[in-house]
Design goal:
By secondary structure, this protein is mostly helical. The protein has one helix at residues 2-17. The longest helix has 16 residues, at 2-17. The termini are far apart.
C-alpha cells in the first residue's frame, strides 16, 4: 500500500501548510 502511504503523507503536508 505504498500509494496509500504517499497520499497520507501528502494530506498531512497539506494540513500542516494550511
Amino acid at each position: 500500500m505504498k500509494q496509500f502511504t504517499t497520499l497520507a503523507i501528502i494530506l498531512a503536508l497539506a494540513i500542516a501548510v494550511s
